Amino acid sequence: MSLPDRLRGVLSPVLTPFNPDLTPSADGLVRHCRALVEQGVGLAVFGTNSEAASMTVAEKRALLDALLAAELPPDRMMPGTGACAIGDAIELTRHAVRAGCAGVLVLPPFYYKGVSDEGLFRAYAQLIEGVADDRLRVYLYHIPPVSGVPITLGLIERLLKAYPGQVAGAKDSSGDWDNTAAMVREFAAGGFDVFPGSEVFLLPGLRAGAVGCITATANVNAGEIMQLYRQWQTPQADALHDRVRRIRGIFQALPMISAMKEAVAWQSGDTAWRAVRPPLVELKESQAAELRRQLTEADYRMPMAETLAYAKG
Amino acid sequence: MSLPDRLRGVLSPVLTPFNPDLTPSADGLVRHCRALVEQGVGLAVFGTNSEAASMTVAEKRALLDALLAAELPPDRMMPGTGACAIGDAIELTRHAVRAGCAGVLVLPPFYYKGVSDEGLFRAYAQLIEGVADDRLRVYLYHIPPVSGVPITLGLIERLLKAYPGQVAGAKDSSGDWDNTAAMVREFAAGGFDVFPGSEVFLLPGLRAGAVGCITATANVNAGEIMQLYRQWQTPQADALHDRVRRIRGIFQALPMISAMKEAVAWQSGDTAWRAVRPPLVELKESQAAELRRQLTEADYRMPMAETLAYAKG
């Protein structure tokens, strides 16, 4: 089995649609993934914005199997597989690697806070050695505002030295450009692929040597973000950058996951898309109305929205 | 099946011993639980200090089964069953309830931060309705320094109103006495049992109307903490309080879980007790030496330590 090409470009932590009883909708996820792939967006399924932490390992395995059965391309997939219990992380990572996924995005164990780099090194080492598969490509997931457990530059250096073949890159969702720039400066030349966690850093990232971005709002603004990615070296780049920033700002002012689901519900005409799992809650109607108003004012339109309805008649 | 009496007194989030390959040692856990029960300490297995977050649901189910097979008393058990994915929480909670455990200690879903009381209410409601068993007794676990997700007084009020039979109490590990006092003041009269998360608050807690405490250091100082609990209304209480505070202070100045395991290893003569799962690390030898020095200076001795060795010859 040959290895897929390294992932690059724009990936989306794919929103997970739920049925009215809050079970995941495999059909809805397949539809959404198809639309994203068709627009050129890679599939970082089971990310923070996928409500992955709210799903069991068994649910995530079943969803991944459904995507593969629907012939979505594993070489464009970077499922999130990190967990507090390394046993859970190993199980889902192994499943992803055997399915041919090009990479996995791995949160550190995130319950205990203030842990040492030595402890986090051991956690990643135990995962890599537990999976024990040369095809494994690990992307380290740095998202301290949510996880509370940062991935330091020193940790990356140690992991790269110990597992140069497996440690492939990182997603930096710190929102701290200086940190993203430091990751690129220190490690990109050695083949460590850095993805900023927002399209706001896509243009500066590409200019600095990042390979793309993994961004939640690609769920709802794939077309414009891909246009920026494809034209980043043209004179239009800065205007495209301003445009995607504007749309992101509208979503970011609200609870993002619920706001994105609201937008898909509105654009697809399928209100089932509003469902989120606890501890998240859907937008209040006043928030939803304000979201629609601002998006309308910004001439927003979601491409392929009509293909996303999974529950309505 | 009649209901066990309400839990009260001193409970310990029981340390989980691991084998050299980091699998849990059921034999070691049984030995430790036996020693705790013999001293009068209840079993809050699978707590923060049990490294419960670092174990899979299957591992925790198997350990609970081993404790029951060893005839440890379920009416003295309050296993931790909270999880980010409600499906995992339901599975382990149902297992505990069917085993006859007197209660379960339930963390809120702890990945997403800044979530609303409405979202947390739904998470607990989904757990309670998913388990659907009248014997279920839920203790809410408030530990914001670790979980990052507080259990507010407003949330407790809503849950008590919706599920008066199932919502039995709380463990308050905020370290904020004012919050513990407020929980007692607002809800204890209605049968809501408050356990401060440290023996430092045992005496003031009992004086205010709390029913005991759930404290990590009961793993290593059960005798003295139980003595304080039994004699809290005697003239010796304040001196006993000062004594347990002193011992706790020694452990608390170090990474607590690793320090407690080091103390058990030292006192039992079984170095296997040192093992922790990533992302935790065992104490450095210099820290361990300082711990032993301070405990020796404090005339510390762990009761029943000789029964705890599980791995040595």
Kindly state the number of beta strands of chain A.
7
CATH architecture of chain A: Alpha-Beta Barrel
Head-to-tail CA distance between termini of chain A = 42 Å
Structural class of chain A: alpha/beta
CATH topology of chain A: TIM Barrel
Helix content of chain A: 40-55%
Would you list the SSEs of chain A in sequence order as H and E? EHEHHEHEHHEHEHEHHHH
Percentage of residues in strands of chain A: 5-15%
Low-confidence stretches of chain A: none
CATH 4th-level superfamily of chain A:
Aldolase class I
Largest interface: A-B, 38 and 38 residues
Average pLDDT over all residues of chain A: 97
Number of domains as seen in the coordinates of chain A: 1
Shape of chain A: globular
As an assembly, this protein is homodimer
Name of the level-1 CATH class of chain A: Alpha Beta
Query: Main β-sheet of chain A, in a few words?
Result: 4 strands, parallel
Largest sheet of chain A, order of strands side by side?
3-4-5-6
Binding site for pyruvate (chains A, B): 214
Active site (chains A, B): 141 (proton donor/acceptor), 171 (schiff-base intermediate with substrate)
Keywords (chains A, B): Lyase
GO molecular function (chains A, B): 4-hydroxy-tetrahydrodipicolinate synthase activity
